[in-house]
Every structure is written in C-alpha cells, then in structure tokens.
Design a protein that fits this description.
Elements lengths: L11 H15 L8 E2 L1 H8 L3 H13 L3 E4 L3 E4 L4 H25 L1 H20 L3 H19 L2 H8 L2 H12 L7 H16 L2 H25 L7 H9 L5
Antiparallel strand pairs: 1-3, 2-3
Helix pairs in contact: 1-3, 2-3, 4-5, 4-6, 4-10, 5-6, 5-9, 6-8, 8-10, 9-10
Length: 242
C-alpha cells in the first residue's frame, strides 16, 4: 500500500527522499523528537535543500514530523492521548475494511494473510521483532487493499506512518508480544475462511484495543525523551576509533 497520496507538484526526487526518511523513522533509526537538519539531510543524500524541504513537507502531512518555524524539523513525539486516538480511529476504519474484504474477496484475502502469517511465524522464531513489525503492517494493510474502497485507503493513509512507527518503537517494550499478536492473526484467518465476519470484526477490534493498552503501558514504562543535539550526533558518528 502506498504510504500517502502525493500532492501534485512534488518532484520525484522529493518523493524518493521522503521515502528514505520515512523508512528511517518507521524503523526507529531516528528517535521520537529527534531534530532533522535540512542541511545534514541534503548532504547525506547529495542533493540540494529544495527536495529535502519538499520531502519534509510531505512527511508533515503524514504526521511523521513537525516543522516548527524558526526552530527546525523534528520527528513526531506521541502522547498517551495520541496513541489512544490513533488506535480508536484505526479500529473504526480497519474493522469496516476487514468486513468488506472478507465479504467480497475472502479467498484472496485469506491466502494473502496466511502467507504473511507464515513469514511472521518465522520472524518470531528468529526473534527478529523489526521484521515481524513490518510484516504486521502488511497484514493489516491487506484488509484495506482487498476492501477496494479508495476512501477507506485514504483514511488509513493519514495514520499508517504513525501506526507503523508506534509498532516499531513501542512493541519492543510491550508485554506478551509478539505471541499474543500472532495468535490473533491466525484466528482472524480462520474466521475469514468460515465466512464469520461478525466474529472477525470482534476479534480485530479486541486485537487493536489490546495493542492500544500494550502501547500505552510501554509508553509509560519507557518515557520518551527527545535526543539532545549532542546525543543525536554521537549516535550517528559512533565512538572514536583508537
């Protein structure tokens, strides 16, 4: 699923740069609240500052960065309220998308989810939590792809970057993950094959609610403190070699 509907007029270079920065944020290479220097990003990508600025504007539309006038650009920092509202919004959209997908494309949906669940099982056994998280995002995105409703997709695109980032940043600290998540995913496939969309929506809604609770507990147990400029630079450069 595309990360976001690109506004007209944005250059392909800006879109490419935005994709790279988005990937770094989603995969926790940049921390919550970390400052993103246009100058440093332009140097890293070996481009002018114009496509970097355009890329950051795109990411602001997705809610992944905040551009503060006369201060700079920063990776978003969630609050408990953000986490709660995002999960509630996601539950409304995703349960409806799942119902449509299971009703109109049950065989294709079940086959796609089964393949993803098999990969998730392998990632879980290998204790590769970042890979599990990326597969988890694809699993839930499949509901929207198979629902074939452009407006549901557009609604989910508004938050999918934040959802994926929360999954990466907080799931590592969440209790009973990913075993609990994996069990839910297998259960949903069974219900799709049985044609039980009512129970599917109930399981999915409960799945998202438990995810919300786990993320909020992880957030409270591991307070997020934005990196200082010195810490950010040290993390990027690493220790001095003797």
């Amino acid at each position: 699923m595309a990360a976001f509907t690109i506004p007209q007029g944005k250059s392909s270079l800006a879109v490419t740069v935005a994709a790279s920065i988005r990937d770094a944020i989603v995969n926790a290479k940049f921390g919550f609240g970390e400052a993103l220097s246009e100058e440093n990003l332009a140097a890293a990508f070996e481009v002018s500052r114009t496509p970097v600025r355009e890329a950051l504007n795109l990411l602001q539309l997705e809610g992944l960065v905040s551009i503060v006038p006369k201060s700079g650009t920063y990776v978003f920092t969630p609050t408990l309220e953000d986490i709660s509202e995002i999960c509630e919004y996601r539950a409304v959209l995703e349960t409806h998308a799942a119902e449509l997908a299971a009703r109109d494309n049950p065989e294709a949906l079940a086959a796609e989810l089964t393949a993803l669940a098999d990969e998730m099982e392998a990632a879980m056994k290998a204790q590769d939590i970042p890979l599990y998280g990326r597969l988890d995002s694809r699993y839930h995105g499949a509901f929207f792809e198979n629902a074939r409703n452009r407006y549901l997709v557009m609604g989910f695109q508004m938050i999918m970057g934040r959802v994926a980032t929360l999954r990466t940043q907080l799931a590592l600290h969440a209790r009973n993950e990913p075993e609990r998540s994996y069990g839910d995913h297998r259960r949903m496939i069974e219900l799709i094959r049985k044609g039980d969309t009512t129970r599917l929506k109930q399981v999915l809604r409960a799945h998202i609610r438990r995810t919300q609770d786990n993320y909020m507990q992880a957030f409270q147990a591991n307070p997020i403190r934005p990196l200082t400029a010195r810490e950010a630079m040290r993390r990027k450069l690493g220790p001095l070699k003797s």
